[in-house]
Amino acid sequence: MISFILTTKRLLKALIRAFKQPLFISLFTTLFFILLSGTMFYTKVEGWSILDAIYFCVVSLIPSGVDTSLTPTTNLGKVFTMFYLAVGVGVMFLTLLTLGKTMIKSTDEPTTDLKKRRSSK
Q: Where in the cell is it found (predicted)?
């Protein structure tokens, strides 16, 4: 449990730092609108509930292998899903990559500061 709390704390610090970067802000905003458009589409065209649509939109962009048991049934839904996944997976990947880099940078900084202090003595 302590490990989970420490990891969550590190993730939140990285998120705060990431939101100070213009690249992350634009990626996060783009990802938000991709998820919003997917949710609206699946709610209107496929007739899914909002929760089902959000769940499908998020889980399908994360490489988790989770079976959602939700599949588009209309031809328009299938075509939309192909484009949605082609665009969304790339944006999700870049967003997670940027967040990961920020997380690694923030954990490297204390050791870098320590090395600087030791070398100055």
A: Membrane
